[in-house]
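During the no-cost extension, the postdoctoral fellow (Dr. R.K.) reprocessed legacy sequence entries with the updated structure-token encoder. One reprocessed record is reproduced below for audit purposes.
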Amino acid sequence: MKKITSLLFAMLLACATFATEAVCYTLTPATGKNNSYAQNCDIAISGITWNLTGNSTKIPWRIGGKSLKNVDRTLFSKTTLDYDVTKIVVTHGAAADITVNSFTLLVAGNADFLDAVSYDGTFAANSTSTFTRPDGADWSNKYYKFVYNVTVSGNDNKFIEFTKAEFYYNITEDIPATAIKVSPTSLDLVIGEKSTLTATLTPANATDVVEWTTSAEGVATVENGVVTAVGEGAAIITATVGEFSATCEVTVEAPLSYAVATDAAELAVGDVIVLGCKAKNAVAGAMGQNAYFAKLDAVIDEDGNLKCGDAIEITLGGYPGAWMLQTEEGIVGCTAVKNLNTTSSKRDSIWTIAINSKGNTATITNHTTNYGTMKFNSSAPRFTTYESGQTAIEIYVKPTTTPMYVVTVETNNAEYGSVLGGGNYREGTTAVLTAVPAEGYKFTGWSNNAELSSATQTFTVTESVTITANFAKGETAITNTTLNAETIKTIENGQLIIILDGKKYNAMGVRL
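Re-encoded structure tokens follow.
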């Protein structure tokens, strides 16, 4: 008898050791049909119908409201979960300015929940809450209801973010998957956004562990099905079990918000900006004959970010200190009092940019005209140039993942000459360097880059570099007294070039 008892105990121990806990069902928020708060909304998710009291068009689901005192908000199943559930782990996101008085789980054998057994839980924002089946309780083939008793002061909507709920059960044998599906099969995200993919195995009780991988870590990462968008581009997320796999195509774009620029020194060649006027809720819109006209339907949020689909984007060109503002129509110039236009070949397309550190207002000044400071005229309305008296503007910068590099320029002797063109550049943009000899000196060449030769030089920026211009005693090739009516002045690579007798000189009279 002792031998039989010992043998039976050993077998039971072996079975208990072999049993493991696995996720049998994951409740991941999906988009419902209702668009207003506090309406019941049935949503079918992986074969189970759920009813959400609250706004079901947001993901993560938002549970809450405004002016609430000890009010219950519920999320419950309307079909049974046909597993012997052992544990439920609920993941919550943010829950600002809302009080959760209690968080309860109801487990019932009937859809009306009249026979429900209640289990108290502990709510924690940006964390998980776990309900574990007590010994002797029956959680097999049941209905489940999550009840949040909440309080919200004031008339502003405040919500709990419901991220997901994972239902666990015990498995006692390995059941291999024969197929796998991923839902959804495609995602459109913006940088910083997250979304959860659901992997469905066949059979439903398969015990294989899903492995998640991404084709482009710089675009989108994945962990346990949670996809995080980190950079612009496309990535393939793959879920694999054994020899079977399924994929989701992810496209990531930059957010539609443009952050207000607070320091001109942080701007880089290649940055995309939008001109705005927060005080007038306006942005620079389509280019007119002589000026920018404001689009007054822009939205600037409380954080100072700009959100607008009709704003005209301007790419910063030239070099820091001598910016060229490039639009789809051309390069922005200023040829007359209060007028803006687009040009690609005139000196008046060069601007300086300064930003007031206190108010973040920008001063964008043309290099050649007394009336060349960009302002906003609310009576026209338009963005154009004035000497004074109009509303100051802000610069909003489009987010980008393109690396920024620093081009540092030096001279072998500061008394011999100077160099233009140093500053911040986005990867792949063109740096324009100009060596300017002091009077009585001449440019002799560049150090640190054997490919550079002429006094005005361009190259593609692929890394941060330091380049030195060398000068020596000598005479400049021309002086102002030698210029005449036949002298041609033009712009090349953002620099003023003088052509005299078929020869090119920079603005300081140095032969190129």
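The longest strand covers residues 158-171. The chain has a mean pLDDT of 83. The remaining legacy entries will be reprocessed before the final report is submitted.
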